[in-house]
Structure formats: structure tokens, C-alpha cells
Amino acid sequence: MDKFVIKFENVGLRYGMGPEILRDLNFQITPGSFQFLTGPSGAGKSSLLRLLFLSLKPTRGLISVFGNDTASILPDELPAIRQKIGIVFQDFRLLDHLTTYENVALPLRVRGKEDVSYRKDVIELLSWVGLKDRINVYPPVLSGGEKQRAAIARALINQPKLLLADEPTGNLDPSLARRLLRLFAELNRSGTSVVIATHDLDLMDQYQTRRLVLNEGRLQVYD
To answer: Predicted confidence band at 1 (pLDDT cuts at 50, 70, 90)?
Structure first.
């Protein structure tokens, strides 16, 4: 097993010729760890998540993912590495021409799996997040909270080694938010490393766990 799922060394990020929005980031995410990423609006949380998901490259510094230096990862190697990472985006990114079931099953289809091998798991997960009666519905018909839950189910279905979630409970009522946090915690206990970006202090206070706090582009780690 790799010592670190993710390791940042002196990482900086800027867009174009602008100022650095992330500066001198040094931290590690270990296998099976659980952490919240927090900080004021505009602190760079979404940019940091994009670095973790490998959809952005740092302007400077070194990032290693599952023991691979991201600077040396070839383009055709990237999909296999990303398959180990589940991500919940704030804007959901569901495909409107696919049903709820098909959206959630998509990561498995991409891996070449047959429907018969995963149908039970997809339905069970959709039931757990409260969408069993919305299996054959298309995203334009879903409410914001339902889209949020479908996006979370899609991120979880692959049983990723690393789960990234950007404000995953933002559109949910407190009861459902707690239920989904329990699902994240169960996934974590099975060995998945979890990073949840959130502004919700009440949510974070329910878990005595590591916090990554971004402020003005710099990161403080509180274990």
C-alpha cells in the first residue's frame, strides 16, 4: 500500500498571469483518512479540489497521487488513476440524456462492466440515498436536492480509494445531510480516504476529525 494517497510539496497555483491563489501547500492525505476542507468563500477550496482530482496542474511544486508524480503521468494513464477517485461537484454534472440509474451506473459502464453485474448495487445505493422511486427519471425532472443525491451516488458507486466532495450537503435538509455523512463515514471505514469541502460548522462539529483550513491561499492543518 502507498504511504500517501496524495502528497503536496510546496505547491502553488495561479491562473494565467494573475497572482497565486494557492501558495506553498504542504500536506498529505493518508489511506483511510477523513478530513474536512474549509475556509472563507474565495479561499481556493474548489481550486484545491481540482488539483486533487488532477483536472488542474500546479504552477509550481510537486503533487503525487497513489505514488505517481503527476508531472510525469502520461495522458493515457490519467483515466485509470482518476477511476480511483470519486468526486461530487457543486454543479452535479449529471448527463440530461441519461436516467438517474444510468448516471449513477456510468462509472461502471466506462470500466466495461455489464449491467447484470452491478444493477443490484446501483439500485441499493439509490435506495439508500432516497432515490429508489426516481430510478427512471431524467435529471431535468429532478429537484436540486435529488440531483445532489444522484451525484453523490455516482461518486460512491465505484468504491473509490479517494472521495472528494464539494459542499455535498448544500441542497439537503439537515436529516438527509446527516444520513449522507454517515454514508461517507461508512465508506471511510471500508478504507476510502475522504475530503469534504464545506462551510457548515455544525456539520463539521459532529465529527472530531482532521480539518484543512484554507485562508488567503495558504493551508493550515489541524489534526
So the answer is: low
Last residue of a domain, one of 159, 182, 201: 159
Asked whether residue 1 falls in the same domain as residue 69, the answer is yes
- CA distances to 100, 167, 207 from 171, rounded to whole Å, are 17, 9, 20
Give the whole-angstrom CA distance, residue 64 versus residue 52. Answer: 10
> Which SS3 state, helix, strand or coil, does residue 191 take?
coil
Domain extent, residue 221, equals: 1-84+160-223
**What is the amino acid identity at position 99?**
T
Does a structural domain hold residue 117? yes
57 in Cβ contact with 70 (< 8 Å): yes
Task: With H, G, I as helix, E, B as strand and everything else as coil, classify residue 63.
Answer: strand
pTM over 0.90: no
User: What span, in angstroms and rounded, lies between the C-alpha atoms of 35 and 120?
Assistant: 30
